[in-house]
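Encode chain A's predicted structure.
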Amino acid sequence: MKRILIAYDLTSSGARALERGLALAALDHAGVRLVHVTDRRLPDAEQAVLIEELRDIVETMMLRHANVADISVEVATGDRATEIARAGEEFEAGLIVAGGHSAMRMRDGLFGTTVERLIRQTGRPVLVVRNDPLRRYRRMIAAIGGEEDVDETLALARLIPSVDEVLAVHAWLPSHRCRTGASHETTKIERMIAKQAAASGLNDLHIHGAALRSDPMTAVMTAFEAIDADLLAIATHARSGFALAWKDSFADLMLEQTSLDLLIRALPR
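Encoded structure for chain A:
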């Protein structure tokens, strides 16, 4: 990953996103672009002052993250989600990092409608940061909706250089006609994971899988606590299971009802 776009809004959640984005960039010697979006076009003098303030903030944080390749600052005007998505495309970012508030439905800042719409608008992975940005990501939960999701979800682990353990979780709620047990489903998901991990060159990571007889949110939260995970990865095709239609989907619920750090990529249907 050579380029990271960080959405920054001069709030505490924006500061967490900036710190986390710079830390990840330093691990990969990646380039960074910071984008700040205003609701109205600023006079030239006011915009110059804002850019200088943003640069000062970045330079202060850079003292802790000296291995960042390079950094640029952009001030844009318009709808936050649209402008962040545009900036990600122009910068060809491998990852977009945004701040997030705690587990409640917010309608301002970079969470709530902004982050939800950003994820829908961009095909690029979005990291939503809500916890201590100085704690390294080590253990990731990968939410697996189905066989078609395995390779895309596991590929998200490659974006975080510090991750060394991935637990891929498949939620399993059998119908009354289904006679297979949890051990059968776990073996099936583990085989799928092993096949895709080998094909994706992820053999250096400790990747294992489990099928839990539970609803998706309960399954993920149980697994998250079991391994003391740092991050949840979701690749959604907006269809079923972990990838229900986006609104009120599994990903949407995790954004609104938990305080986890989330790495989400919305894939084409």
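The chain is about 35% helix and 20% strand.
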